[in-house]
Design brief:
It is built from six helices and four strands, in the order βαααβαββαα. With 129 residues, it is an alpha+beta fold. The chain has a four-stranded mixed sheet. A hairpin with a 2-residue loop joins strand 3 and strand 4. The relative contact order is 0.21.
C-alpha cells in the first residue's frame, strides 16, 4: 500500500510550534504553510481533518521540513518546495499535491476532496501486485 507523506513548511520543536501559532494568528496572510493552516487550528488538529485522517485508506506520515530533509536528504531533499504532499510507492517518492495547489486550497474540505480524487486516480494507475 502506498504511503502519503505530508511535509509542513515549518520546522519541528515546541518553540517553532509556538512561533508558528503566533504567526498564524497575528498575520495569516503571510503565514508560509497553508497545509498547517488547513489541518491545524491555533493549538489543536482540525476535527474534520483528524476524522478523515483516521478513517482514510492511505497510511499517512506527517513531517516538518527539517525532519523530511534529515530523513530523505541524500535522495529527495533538494527536489521539493514546501509544503507538499508526496506519495511513497515502490521505494520512490512522487508529488501527490504540489506546493502551488496547496496554496490555492482554502478549506479542509477541499484538501480532503483533493486527496480522495488524487488517491482514486493514483490507485487506478498502479501496477497490480
Amino acid at each position: 500500500m502506498s504511503k502519503l507523506i505530508f511535509i509542513y513548511n515549518a520546522n519541528s520543536g515546541k518553540l517553532n510550534a509556538l512561533l508558528d501559532a503566533v504567526h498564524k494568528q497575528s498575520s495569516p496572510k503571510t503565514y508560509q504553510c497553508n497545509l498547517c493552516a488547513l489541518t491545524y487550528g491555533t493549538f489543536s488538529e482540525n476535527k474534520k481533518w483528524k476524522k478523515f485522517r483516521k478513517e482514510s485508506a492511505f497510511e499517512m506520515v506527517f513531517l516538518h521540513r527539517d525532519e523530511f530533509q534529515k530523513k530523505y536528504a541524500s535522495k529527495f531533499g533538494a527536489k521539493h518546495s514546501f509544503p507538499v504532499v508526496l506519495i511513497e510507492n515502490f521505494q520512490d517518492l512522487e508529488v501527490f499535491v504540489t506546493t502551488k495547489k496547496l496554496s490555492e486550497i482554502s478549506t479542509v474540505d477541499e484538501l480532503i476532496q483533493l486527496i480522495e480524487v488524487n488517491g482514486k486516480s493514483f490507485r487506478n494507475t498502479q501496477i497490480p501486485s
